[in-house]
Hints:
Chain A contains 4 helices and 4 strands. Chain A is of the alpha/beta class.
Amino acid sequence: MKKINILTVCGSGTFSSTMVAQKLTEVLREKGFEAHCTECNNGQIETQLSTAKYDCMCFTSPCNGTYPIPCINAIGFLTGIGEEEIIEKVLEVARSL
Amino acid sequence: MKVLDEALIQLDVDAATADEAILHMADTLYRLGYVKEDYAKRVLTREKEYPTGLIGQGLGIAIPHTDPECVIKPAVCVLIPKEPVKFMMMGTKDEPVMAEIILPLVVKDSRMQINMLKKIMELLKDTEKLDKIRECKDKKEILRMLAFLEEE
């Protein structure tokens, strides 16, 4: 199975980032991708990006910097609104690998 | 995993601001030994930096929480304010959400509670159930509606 490395970001680095990671892993598995998600908070983004290779970032708290990988707003996973769009964006990244 | 407690279901709460709502629940959480002393301050600070307001299908929700260090035991609380309380939308700093139902989430270890987090995600999307909870005046009935959170 093709792998995709995703950094999931939220304010505390534990709560919604874990929910997002969980959801991504599930959805991507159905689509034939193996998602490796790492959870972090906003303050840890730079360190994470410099120590490991990520294909994209999914966030629920605003990521203000400019990053070399696609940054996808994943708040919709918590509310159920716009889930398809989020999934499509992540799949686009996954397919391009 | 036990996360529900009748004392943590608070209805008709007189809270004019998000801070008041958070402090109201924090008092009970501290008194009952769910959280350490610095919990309230940390949730308030975090809420300003990383707001937790969400809009389901037209229903304003807020899920104030903080990092696990100041948590002693996990809990899912329900606070229904008398009047909707202004929170900011998650992912923004200035988009208001008028929260009609506030669910303070006391998370001890997110990996241990992955199953429960999944159920909370289901709940956040279930506007019909949230609406019923909001209108319900009976704490025991609310506990029954949330019992699925504790199922393994």
